[in-house]
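FORM 7B: Structural annotation worksheet

SECTION A. Query
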Amino acid sequence: MKLAGKTVCVTGGAGFIGSALCRELILRGAKVIAFDTGTRANLRQIENDLEIVTADVRDLDSLREPIRKSQVVFHLAAIERRTACQRDFALALDVNVQGTANVLSLCSHVERLVFMSSTMVYGEPKYLPVDESHPLDGYEPYAVTKIAGESLCKAYHFLNGLPFAIVRGANTFGPQQGFDCLIPTMILQGLKRTIEVWTPDVVRDFLYVDDCVDALIKVAETEAAVSKHFTFRWDAHSTPLNLGQGHGTTIGELAGIISKYLHTTWVDVKKPPPVTSKIVGNIARISYLTGWKPKVSLEEGLRRTIEYYKAGGKG
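SECTION B. Predicted structure
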């Protein structure tokens, strides 16, 4: 199934990944409905090419009409910051869990729904790279809300046959990402002074935003990647799907690459490590089912991102 000519709804459409997804969907000939509660700055260049709706996933009535008109839904709206979910777990539950339930409850007619989850659902991995059969051991608030969202997809699939796919994303980065995220923070520090690294041996899987968007679209367009018939067994031909580069980079290595481009240095400030010290996803399943592979290397993605912020780009 191609998305060209389809009406496609993107929740969180004004966000970092959501706005990039909207731009690419338009280029591929889709009729896009983007809704978000925040700023629309990321959509300014394409605002005449799509429908923008002010909607809150916690408000069922605000979602009803846009989703009714849609054939495909990408559900990206969420409180994504791990620290924000810890500060206000009640809000994270309301947005990430009840909000997801609201969206899913209106999607019984759609041809497919793609839910953006996270590899953080695995918690501290028992092995690397983690495949989709790894236990869901995430216990921090953000991971718990994503695990709940995945379970809700399966529940609505059981209740009304909702065709869905779950994509467990890695650490996506690129131009227009918020200044409070890791890579923009490092770049902005490096432009002014020494880069401060909390825990250099922490390992993450970094994916450039263009590759993330390409993967999401390929998942939506690939029949084998979408669960259409309820089964008690989730095998290699059903969801979920890990998304990432498929190899890990330490935060120290990341700081080293950015430092090289900016002709600066980095220092270990020796702050406590995050909940999960190492996470790298095995991307064999998504590659096998959709043919997708990342095209932009970490170094090239960082070069593009650095050039964006050096030119005064906003987060």
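SECTION C. Observations
The chain has a mean pLDDT of 93. Residues 174-205+245-310 form a domain with the UDP-galactose 4-epimerase; domain 1 fold (CATH 3.90.25.10).

SECTION D. Sign-off
Analyst initials: ____
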